# Entry
Amino acid sequence: MKKIIWIIAGIAIVGLVIFKLTSNKKTTESKVYQFDKEKPISVDVDTIRLKNINEKGIFTGTFEPNKEVKISAETQGKINAVLVDVGSYVQQGQTLIQLDNSLLKLQLQTVEVQIEGLQDDVNRYTILTEADAVQGVQLEKAKLGLKSAKVQKATLQEQINKTTIKAPFSGVVTAKLSEIGAFAAPGVPLLQITDISTLKFTVNVPESNLKQFQPNQNYNISADAFPELTLNGKLSMIGSKANMGNSFPVQFQVANTKKSTIKSGMFGKVSLSENEVKQGIIIPSYAIINNENQAQVYIVKNGKSVLHTITISKNIGNKTIVSGGLNVGDIIVTNGFINLFDGANINIK
# Structure
C-alpha cells in the first residue's frame, strides 16, 4: 500500500508541475506581442510614369590654393623686423623679414679694405716687374690674393642678401610663425604665403562617370557659400589611380576673379549637363532596398507587396534612374517599410 501511495503522490506532483508550467507559458505568451502577418501594413506608394531625364551630374569637391609655401631663412640670425602680418597681400620680391646682418657688414668692410690694399700691391708690383725691379712671382701672389679677397667679398654679400627674406611669389600671408627678436635658422618656418589668384578644385569621380570629363575642357564650378557665383574651371588632371572608394581624382584650374570672396578650403560643386532631353523611369532613391548586392523595390500587386529586383542606371541627387525591372504603371512602395515583407497585405495611405 505504501508503494502505491508514493507512486500516486509522485504522479500528482508531476501533474501539478506540468500544469504550472503550461499555465506560466500561456501567461507569458499572452504578454508577448504577436505580429499578425495577415494585418494590412500602411504604406506610401508612387505610380511609375515616364519623366524627362536631364542627366545633370553634380560632383562635390574642395578649393585648394594654386601655390602655398612656408618660408624659412637660408641663414641663421636674430629677427630684426617682420614687415607683414596675417592677411597681408604681398607681391613677388617684396621684403617680408629682415634678419640682423650687422656683423656680416663689418666683415664685408674688412674685406673691402683688404681688397684696396691688395689692389695697390698689384699695381705697384706690376710697375716694378716691368722695370725688372722685383721677381714676377711676387706679382702673381698679389694677384691671387686679390682674387681670393674678391671671392670672400662676394660670399659675404650673398650672405647679407640672404638676411633679407623676400616673397617668392605674389599671394596672401596666411600664417605668421615668428616675431621680432626670435632666432631664425635654416629649415624653421617663419611665414606661410598662399596664392589664391588661381585655385585648384578637386572632385572624386566614379569610374562610370569619367567619360564625361575631357582634358582642357571648361566646366561650370560654384562655391557652396556663394552659389550665385559661377566660376570657369579648366580640367587639368584626371587621376591615374583610384582611391579606396573606387573613385578617381579630377582636378580643375579655376581663375579666382573673386579673391576676396572665394577662399582656399571652401567646398564647391562642378555641374555637368547634356543638351539632349531623354525620357525614362525615375524613382526616389529611398524606395530602393539593397539586398545581397541587389537593388530591389516593393511593387504592389493585388493588394500585396512583391519584392522585385531592378537595374539601376544612374543616381542623380536623391533620385535614381532605373533601366530595367519596372514598367510604366507599376506601383512601388516609397515609405512604410517597417514590418514590410514579401507577400504582406498592403493598405495604401
Notes: The chain has a mean pLDDT of 85. The longest strand covers residues 189-206. Residues 2-31 form the longest helix (30 residues). The helical segments are 2-31, 102-130, 136-162.
